[in-house]
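Predict the 3D structure for this chain.
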Amino acid sequence: PATLPFTTANWYLPQTVTVTGVHDAVADGDVAYAITVGPTTSTSALYAGLSELVALTNLDDDTAGVDVVPITPILSISEAGISSTYQVVLGSEPTADVTITASADAEVRVNGAATATLTFTTADWYLPQTVTVTAVDDDIDEDGDANLTIHSGLITHTAASADANYNAIVVVSVGAEVTDNDTAGVIVTAAPMTFTEGVAGSATYTLALSSQPAADVVITANAGTQLLVDGAVTQTITFTDADWSTPRTVTVTLAVDAVDEDGDGNVTPHAGQITHTATSTDAFYNGSPIASVTASITDDDDAGLNVAPLIGTTTEAGGTATFSVWLNSQPTADVMVPLTSSDPTEGTVAPATSPLTFTSGDWATPQTVTVTGVHDAVDDGDQGYSITVGPTSSVAGDVIYATGFSRTVNLTNTDNDTAGVTVSPLTGAVAEAGDTTPVTFSLVLNTQPTDDVIITLNAGTQV
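Done. Predicted structure below.
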């Protein structure tokens, strides 16, 4: 009670005094105070003005602190625009304004900025304040695996206040899992390309990176043997972290060659291909797969054998004829061309011990073939025969020439034999007086007969 009445009747009976602690929201610690008992009032001069002090301590139930809700789970956000929130509130009433500064790392933003300040007063300290966390939508592929791996963001906090309990008080950090929306890769944009050998023309395609690299990325374009990139067989294109998104144009032209790539009389176009490789100290781009560019090429070269017109005529007297042989297109490997006479009794061909060999370097240089007439003793007239040039072969792997091209050169071996009988002159004379001394002459055929020849001698009446 607020007062204790003692009378002449109850003066000796103790009266109980109950002291109740008063709650405040301030973390002010355990506070000592006292209850004053008295001063007494009484008509008795002995009891008038007496007083005593009773010392007590009010135990504090408040703790200064900053609550961040939720601390877990970690916030999930995305560079594609998915955000999340958390709340901050004080654990007790401050004695002065408390300013909480939330600072985001490079991956996230708080309330749309790198930092956000939350001010709590003695009037609103218990009201939670909301922080919205968003991802920084950069152009960098932080995870390198088509957005399957989440990278981390972090928000830290600092506190400032004239209230010593809150100034520099430790505040937990908030983590964020950021789903990336960037994928490291090289974008190749190419329209269909068509070329015809012997016809001038060009085409273009572009290269660009799909995300900002952490280091220079060098793309090497290799045109192979059929095409040229920017006038060369290989070309390098470098992208930096500043110009990575600017497409680079590559000009494609046809390389001049003499190779029959299709082997079908230029009916079906064949393909030329440009391949690409990437090198960089950025691990996500180094060795990154890049699409190839393909062009359709109509060939103007036909594989085959060329044979120059025949010079000279073979004769049984040893006369020779010559012609030249070369390939109609450049081979991709050595090509062998054998030479065969249809009738070695009429004409022989040189070289005969080994075939003609053409390489990719001398395929257009004519090689001379000599055919020599062969003599016989038969009056058989001029005889026709031929030299087969080919069929071609390529052990090393020119698949078109390995199919076997051949040509035929027709010749005539001029005969130098005339059928007849040659009679040698008589030696001596025959006398009618019975001279028995022999007189001789001889007979021989001028050419080899195809059958037996019988010569009948008729001596008449004189011998």
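The mean pLDDT is 87.
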